[in-house]
Amino acid sequence: MPNTTIRSIEIFKLFLPLKEPFVISLGPINQVQNVVIRIRTADGCTGYGECSPYLTINGESIDTCYVVAQYLAPALLGHDALDIAGAVAIMNRIIYANNSIKSAFDIALHDVAAQQAGLPLYAFLGGQRNKILTTDMTVSLGPVEKMQADAVLFQQLGFPAIKVKLGETLEADVARIRAIREGIGPTHPLRIDANQGWHTADAALAVLHALAPYNIDHCEEPIARHAFMDLARVSAASPISIMADETCGDEHDAARLIQLGACTQFNIKLGKSGGLHRARKIVDLGAAASIVLQVGGFMESRLGMTAAAHLALSSSAIQHCDFDTPLMYTEDPVVGGIRYLANGVVDVPDTPGLGAAIDEAYLRHAEKREFTR
Question: Positive or negative CA dihedral for 279, 282, 288, 289?
Answer without folding.
Answer: negative
